[in-house]
Amino acid sequence: MIATLLQLLPEADFVSPTIDWHAIAPEMVILVGSLVLILLDSVKLEKAKPFMPTLASLVLLGALIPVITLAVDGSTRVLFGGSYVVDSMSLVLKALFLVSAYIVVLMSTNYVADGDYWESEYYSLIVAAVLGMLVMCSARDLIMIFVALELLSIPAYMLAAWRKGDEKSNEAGLKYYLMGVFASAVLLYGMSLIYGVGRSTRLDVIAGNLMRIGDGRGAPIVTLAMIFVIIGFAFKVSAVPFHTWAPDTYEGAPTPVTAFLAVASKTAGFVALIQIVFYCFAARPDIIQPVFAVLAILSMTVGNLIALKQTNVVRMLAYSGIAQAGFMLAPFAVIETNREQALSSIVIYLVIYAAMNLGAFAVIIAISRKTRSAEITSLGGLFSYMPGLTVAMTIFLASLAGIPPFGGWYAKFGIWQALIGGNTALGYALAIIMAINTVVAAYYYLNVAKTMWFDEAPDGDTTPVKIPFSLIGAMGITVVATVLFGVLPGLLTNISDFTPIAAALGR
Amino acid sequence: MMNFLNTWGLVLTIFLPLAGALVMMAIPKQSEGAIKLVALGAPLAAAAMGILLMLNFDYGDSENLQFMVNKNWIELINSNFILGLDGLSLPLLALTLFIVPLVVIYSWQHVPNPGNPKAFFTLMLILETAMIGSFLAQDLILFFVFFEVTLLPMYFLIGVWGGEQRRYASIKFFLYTLFGSAFMIVAFVALYFLAKAPTGIALEQLRALGGSYADMQAGDPLHSFGMQALTYSGAAGIAKTTAIVIFGGMFLGFGIKVPMFPFHTWLPDAHTQAPTQGSVILAAVLLKLGTYGFIRIAIPILPVAARAWAPIIGILAVIGIIYGALGCLAQTDMKRLIAFSSVSHMGYTMLGISTLTAFGLNAAVFGMVAHGLITGLLFFVAGSVKERYHTLDIKRLGGLLISAPKMGWILGFATMASLGLPGLAGFWGEFPAILSAYDPAVGLNVALFRTLMVLAAVGTVLAAGYLLWLYQRTAFGTPSEEFANDPNITDVNKFEWMAWSPILAGIVILGFFPGLIFNVAGPAVEVIARTVGG
Fold first, then answer.
1. How many CA atoms lie within 13 A of B288 on its CB side?
2. Phi-psi region of B465 (alpha: psi -120 to 50; beta: other; left: phi over 0)
3. Model confidence over A161-186: pLDDT tens digits?
4. Rounded to the nearest 5°, which phi and psi values hold at B274?
5. Exposed end of chain A (fewer CB within 10 Å): N or C?
6. Distance of CA A115 to CAs A47, A54, A119, A252, Å?
7. What would the 3-class secondary structure string for A123-187 be?
8. What ipTM score was computed for the predicted complex, to two decimals?
9. A285/A212 Cα distance (integer angstroms)
10. Which residues of B424-438 are buried (b: 16+ CB within 10 A; e: fewer)?
11. How buried is B408 (Cβ within 10 angstroms: 0-12 exposed, 13-18 middle, 19+ buried)?
């Protein structure tokens, strides 16, 4: 039976693709690493536990090595018939994900051990999610993007609910899961429509077909499909009005996981948006520009206004993250006239945002070792007994507010440059709305700084708490990165000059 | 020597205070002696560097930038680390280098509550670096960075060491300024994209800058943040209405900082709540960032728009003069009164600027320095009064000349200087500014400016009124019963003498030799006035 079936197959039709192993070496390291983590756990359950964070760190940093060798090599590598591309932009983003995940591991080390949560699974899930993120950086194919998205999302659903005994953590996990699945469904529906009219899963082929369709037959389907896909990712990057899950999830999830969601997971959402919009939807700027402008304006304004009223610092950061997402969405609205700068400003924003936001979460974890709370009032008087932490937190807050000489100013500047450089009415309007929002945001960031510097300790307890070494490391890396990117932004612009890539897209 | 100054002079002047701040962070909190030594040493080192620069400055060539430093900074956006010193920057650099060490000496005896000299002086040194940097930067983005860096240290100085309503005052100060600078940066970016290479002589000058400008043709996009390049371009290729809008963005940024009516409301709160040291630095230097920005950036880069805006600036300046003076008459708190007098005095500076003539701009530069010295001194004295009486309520004060005669005389001297008594510095800041409005730049409405001149002159009468009234109520008469035999009320102590006597001397010297500033700033502002056609 089988033999006859096999005979029916045309013989020379399937050629196994030649694989450039160097190009996918980072992914392979992570894949093998996560398998090793799982195996170790099942073989020597208790003995291996203390080594798990170290092992996870080694895997993440190990994967950084091929990323660096690829960057030194510098050539663009195209795999699997164009659906997987390793170029300079994808390498910058991969390095960003690896370093971010490494910092999250540093932040988790004592948190997970002290809280007596499951350790081995925790780290293998983080590493697995990173695999999804790395794939996302290179994916140029609808199916590849969707697989990467699910691979990075599913571990995150579980991680959000990691504090099993805690109701809020369960709520966080469930909300995130339900909203995430709903978003995936909308996204998948949009993708299927795109496939229907674009007749391929490869982004560049679809882009060509979309351009050919133009305003002709099938144009309404194209519009619908694009909006569906963008909405799907808008959930992921928590853009208003698809943000409702974020504050509850951020507050309930273990704080290192929150950092992971707020930075790595959100960045992955943006990477997906970059891939699909810049490589495919850019063919129809008339449809997507207004959509992104609305999303950006709503996100920055609503996020900021709600953040003003928050009393919990993690919730505040959640809403501020929504507003920051709004800033990052704005350059998509000038994609037609200023493609290069839009692309590089988003990537630069992502890198700086990761440094400052991870840093802020690291400080919150350190402080909550003492205060056991994330209420803003519990930070009162911090400057009098832990000045180092206070200064670090102030740097991150000032950076988030966009005040030089900390990284955030250049991130915002880049966005403004992209918006104004597009020389469209929409771009100017967005730039001005963003300027007003920057001031609103400064108020609530400074409110936290004010509590730390000006107020008294709420219960009069001013004994400093010992901060574990790994947490100091996490804060050290992020402080140095935040200051360095602010003082010498040239370091970043040199590696994120994607002009040739973005120009090639224009065709 | 010249070689060293040319490469390192300006860089060291800017960053020596910052280096001091870094050293200070390494000193343990307990060793106050070492902390104060660094706190004084770093500004003095910067001042020494500044004196060296001023000694080697070519005064015959003060319209051109000297000791220039030009290094790559952010290549992608063609923003460079450009520093330079010319006749416009020099007086303000000197003012900053002069005031900060005096503020440190004044703080020697005690740092305001809640103490912590380490943090206090660290912030002050960071602030000094930012202020000096703003006056020397010759690149818009570099200027913006320094301009913004002044915000956080001042915010903390007010918020931690300030009075009872410090929280409200500090956040108000911060948000107001940030609001302005957000629009300012948008304006800068718009300039970057819209400015084009000019024609004629300006093109030759632009090409002479070298680098990417060397072979530019008229009409090429400039894509630059360099102040020199943009000044040569003079907004060539930007439509007039667009230029007016861009100027509006800068107007918000600089006007809030000055502060101009109606953006002044942050100032009385910030001044009243700030610690003495904070008030002095705010009044003496930080406000000048705004006026300096108008003269250095907004007017020469957007000359056409500047002419369109000049009447509005002039009217607002005069409203500020009158409103500030009337505000003074209504105050019951000495510090708040001095704060409102700042609004009024900065109005004269802005009136001088709005004439767009070399004469008016020169008066404005002098006014900045004079106001810095005089109002700085007034805030010093107010701080010392507060320290002794624990109140600044004018009704409760009185008889200062009896309880602390020397301090009473110094206050008298400062009020006389402030109301513009000839022979003291204040006169040369105020009188020429009023006079300049008689003859504004060609094309401006002469009738309007002459009306403004008359109104501004009325302002000086009001100024004499509120200052003499203040002096009469605080210094004359007999001390009220509650303070009559208060042992806390002592006369000027030695740290106060050390901090104040250089300022006293400065006010007199500038009063008798106004040429010290007029001659230095003159050629530089003349070039600017020529670019706007005045």
1. 29
2. alpha
3. 888 888 888 888 899 999 999 999 99
4. -65, 155
5. N
6. 18, 18, 10, 15
7. HHHHHHHHHHHHHHHHECEHHHHHHHHHHHHHHHHHHHCCCCCCHHHHHHHHHHHHHHHHHHHHH
8. 0.88
9. 14
10. bbbbbbbbbbbbbbe
11. buried
Q: How high is the pLDDT of residue B255?
A: 94
> Rounded distance, CA B41 to CA B47, Å?
10
Distance CA B243, CA B298 (A): 10
Q: Minimal CA–CA distance to B410: which of B368, B370, B382, B389?
A: B382
According to DSSP, the residues that pair with B79 across neighbouring strands are B74
Those residues of chain B whose CB sits closer than 8 Å to some CB in chain A are 72-77, 119, 141, 144-146, 148-149, 151-152, 155-156, 159-160, 166-167, 170-171, 174-175, 178-179, 182-183, 185-186, 189-190, 192-193
**Position A105 in a domain:** no
Cis peptide before A66 (omega within 30 of 0): no
* Residue among A109, A138, A146, A143 at smallest CA distance from A126: A109
Residue A11 lies in a domain: no
> Which secondary structure element, helix H or strand E, spans residue B53, and what is its range?
helix B32-56
pLDDT of residue A11: 57
Q: What is the pLDDT of residues B139-181, one digit of tens each?
A: 999 999 999 999 999 999 998 898 888 889 999 999 999 999 9
B418, B324 Cβ separation under 8 angstroms: no
Cβ contact, residue pair A442, B155, below 8 Å:
no
Does a structural domain hold residue A407?
yes
Instruction: Provide the domain limits for residue A493.
Output: 286-507
Question: How far does Cα B393 stand from its chain's mean position?
Answer: 27
B80 and B226 in contact (C-beta within 8 Å)? yes
Find chain B residues with C-beta within 8 A of A446's C-beta: 155, 171, 174
Asked if pLDDT for residue A506 goes beyond 60, the answer is: no
Q: Number of structural domains, chain A?
A: 1
Q: Which residues of chain B make contact with A387, given a CB cutoff of 8 A?
A: 119
The token duo for A2 is 């089988």
